[in-house]
Design goal:
homodimer; 278 residues; mainly alpha; two-stranded antiparallel sheet; 2 strands; 1% strand
Chain lengths: 278, 278
Amino acid sequence: MKGQITRKEFLIGTTSVVAAASLGAVGVSAIEAGTGQSLLAGGIANAAPTPWPWKYKTLDREDVRKRAHKAYHDGGCCYGAFHGLNSALADAVGEPFSLVPSQMFYYGGGGGAGWGTLCGALNGAAALISLVVDRANASALISELFGWYTEVEFPSDISNDYAQQHLFLVSKYDKPLMKTVSGSTLCHASVSRWCTASGIKAGALERSERCARLTADTAAKAVDLMNAFFAGQFKAAFVPPKSVTGCMGCHGSAIANVQSGVKMECTQCHQDNWEHLY
Amino acid sequence: MKGQITRKEFLIGTTSVVAAASLGAVGVSAIEAGTGQSLLAGGIANAAPTPWPWKYKTLDREDVRKRAHKAYHDGGCCYGAFHGLNSALADAVGEPFSLVPSQMFYYGGGGGAGWGTLCGALNGAAALISLVVDRANASALISELFGWYTEVEFPSDISNDYAQQHLFLVSKYDKPLMKTVSGSTLCHASVSRWCTASGIKAGALERSERCARLTADTAAKAVDLMNAFFAGQFKAAFVPPKSVTGCMGCHGSAIANVQSGVKMECTQCHQDNWEHLY
């Protein structure tokens, strides 16, 4: 069928074309440019991958908020956040972003195949940040995103307003939803806290819409962080809660047996009567 | 500089070549195949992305185990698991796998930018599974991987033996390491339990090597699951622990306020004296 040729097939096809065209000046020029040369010399059909980190282009926060909200309803929170960001970049610059299938991030929904661990909106947004920012700076931006997530109220006023004004691309529920602070980056804790406060079951339509707005808000925040970073204006604002710094006096990784968790609220799982079972 | 041309530049270049070559039979053939046609008609430089899910090729478990172990030492657990798998596929089939920079998964190390949530080895392996398996089946495979992870002893005998026999590509520590069952998919819990049992600090070389072997074991398990799935032989074996099914009688998402966590051991965080604070 026409139009169904793969990139690889196309490149193999053009190898022959380049070979055939090499008698002419245009063909020689393309070959000399580099990749064409290796195609001819080694018969390798694959072009060079785009060097990492990929080049970011300033995004519109509100455009991404709407994309991520719709994408949540298409493929869950992790897909939603990643696709909201990646589709905006693919539309703005095309390749290489358009070559990454956002479906790769289906798995992160419900905290990872429904296991309730890392919130998928954070997971998907973090992957996109890690695609365009070097390792050390990506870690700082992502840690800021995680910290913000634990302290902000979800859904935001903006997302509640969007729903009410039908400004989202999908409106499965158009009323404002109760706002809660999750205190955690974990899906299980974030959702359970909201459900307990709102009295709404986890399986309800409203809960799903709450997570769609949270996904939208998280992707929008990632845009803010990346735009600021690439404008040379990023400053970390998140400070780990006092309970964390207190616990880490004895339980830090340099001193004892605790890995990570150095920023997330300890007492949400570890009560005062915690018996240090392991 | 020669050899530094990007894919996009190359394709723009070959558009001209195809146009110039279209007088010849080979050129016309390539254009009629589809993608070439749109390049000429619309002047669009981007080729069609490879349809998702991407085509898997049977991998060698032990080859991937070694790749993932080395990659852990290059870029952490999440990068390690993803790169162990993705580099094997890129070497076997080239594109589209070679177009995805494994550095995108740097962020998942230490449970996500060091926050101690989802183990990065699971996160990276899950992303690769989600790249080659449809959504519903990927969720089943990943859930099986997560379940296996919570119940198996890390590091495996095989990885301990590899280290002792210097069969790994990188040997920062060559002695067998204590084995523990994590009981959790969370980095924080997995590492803390091992450190407590072994008496080794989280910041120690041995702990890092333990996570490298764990990453190797997790990537190898992902190979087993995918190979079995594509051979039509996958059967889910993980059964959620009794404490989970017991708790979910009252706390399931259809009944009450708990999202997810339906498979992970509840009592690791929730003690008998848990006061239901949220």
